[in-house]
Every structure is written in C-alpha cells, then in structure tokens.
Amino acid sequence: MKISLTCLMLAFVICLIGCTSYKKIPYFQNIPDSSYVYHNGETIDGVNKESITIKPDDILAIKILLKDGSDALMPQNTINPTPTPIGNNANQSKNIYRVNEAGFIQIPIIGNVEVTNLTLSEIRKKIGDLAMITMKNPIVQVELDNFTITVLGEVNKPGTYTIVNKDKCTIVDVLGLAGDLNIGGKRNNIMLIRDLGNGKKKIGRFNLQSTDIFNSPFYNLQQNDVVYIEPTKFRASAESFQKISFVAGFAAILSVLVSVIALSK
C-alpha cells in the first residue's frame, strides 16, 4: 500500500513537471536566435521612455537654492507620505507641497503655481522663471515624493516601491526592482491597474514573451500604478499538490496509529 501510494504521488509530480513547457518561460521570444543577431543586434520599435506628469494630490519636494547654498524656502505644510523613501536623500529635510484638487501648489515668496499635467523638468523651469523675478540665479530642485509602484503576485520581492530621484519608470524597471518573476509567474498576461481618479480604473496587460511590450501604451508607468502577475496553472497545481501531500501524509500517520492501537489490544 505504501509503495502504491508513493508511486502514485511520484507519477503526479512528474505529470505536473511535464505540464510546464520551457517555451512559456523565456522573455522576448520573437527575437531571432541567429548568428546575425549575435554579431549585429536586432533593431525593434518601441515607445520613448517618458517622464511622468503631475496630478492632484501628488506630493512635491521643492528647494530653491541661492548662490550661498541656502534654501530660499522655509519648510511649509510638512507632511509624511505613507511610503518611506529610500536612497541617499531619504533623511534630508524637505520643503513639501501637496498639489490641490485645482492643480496648484502654494510656494512662499512665489505664490500659487499650477503644476498639473507638467513634467518635473517643466515645473523646475516654471518655478525658476518665477523665482528669478526676485532672486538672482536661483537653482530649483523638484522631486516627486509619492512616485510609488506596487507589485503583487508571482515575483520574488512583492511590495510597494518608491522611485527616488527619477521621473521615469517602465514596466521592465519595476519588475527588476521586484526581483523578476518567479518560475510560477505567468509571463504572457501581466496586469496593470491604473487609478484615473473619480473612482475609475484603467486595466492594461503586457506580454513579456514578445517585444511588443516596448510598444505598449502602458510601458511607461505612472505614480500609484499596481502591477499584478498571476500564477500559471502549474503553480496553482503545485500548491494543490502540496495540500494533497499534507493530507496524504497525515492520513498515513493516522493509519499507522490506528494499526498500532489495534495490534496492542
């Protein structure tokens, strides 16, 4: 009985392994595996890596540095965003401003500045031009303090990642931060969930097995995007097998105990 049960379980494992095709694992499979590509490379089309634009409720860290190195701005309306920034600038003091629903921030000395739908570089220039009215050669620094991406599902390091000192991030970048997909991740159907505001969400999908991902309208991520990698059927079957193995093992132990008790009578 023990041999039969072991054989059945072993056969089931082999069957599960056989269901996992190697062809479902590699990325960018439409790139030819040829000597030409090895020596000359393959040129493919793709969207440009784009800077994010600012939205209402975004959190901006702003400094206006003067010639002597001092900051012309005093800390105003300091807040602590939920995600903890990581990197060299995490512990430095910041002048923090939240973008209001109308799309403005209020900066001391300068006043109200409209920033929605602008990139960080455009905001730096806009604030710099306004600052030059009353200051000589100011240097403006602007960072987005809530540039976070959440990665869920079958990756090696799921979690919420804060993108520090950058205004661009792609799906490939964030999967790298999350330690890449594990062997149980479905590579041809990655989901993106994007908050459009007013309770609306937009859902996009990626296929890492094709270079078409570089042409996706969702290739460039935005603040607060959520990326979800669903499990393959093999992964789900493996989880079920673990549960079956536990139940079978428990049943075997229980059977032995019953036999021992019966023999002792």
SSE order and pairing:
Blueprint: H1 2-19, H2 35-40, E1 59-65, E2 96-98, E3 104-107, E4 111-114, H3 120-131, E5 139-144, E6 148-153, E7 159-162, H4 171-177, E8 190-197, E9 200-206, E10 226-229, H5 233-264
Parallel strand pairs: 6-10
Antiparallel strand pairs: 1-2, 1-5, 3-4, 6-7, 8-9, 8-10
Helix pairs in contact: 1-5
Pfam family, one: Poly_export
Keywords: Membrane, Signal, Transmembrane, Transmembrane helix
InterPro entries: Poly_export, Poly_export_N, Soluble_ligand-bd
Report the count of strand segments.
10
Total DSSP helices: 5
Largest sheet: 5 strands, mixed
Q: Class by helix and strand content?
A: alpha+beta
Point out poorly predicted stretches. Answer: 76-91, 236-241
CATH topology of the largest domain: Outer membrane lipoprotein wza fold like
Name of the CATH first level of the largest domain: Alpha Beta
Nearest-angstrom radius of gyration? Answer: 27 Å
| CATH homology-level superfamily of the largest domain | Outer membrane lipoprotein wza domain like
Beta-strand residue fraction: 15-25%
- Taking the alpha carbons of the first and last residues, their distance comes to 23 Å
Main β-sheet, spatial strand arrangement: 7-6-10-8-9
GO molecular function: polysaccharide transmembrane transporter activity
Domain Soluble ligand binding: 149-200
Domain Polysaccharide export protein N-terminal: 50-144
Keywords: Membrane, Signal, Transmembrane, Transmembrane helix
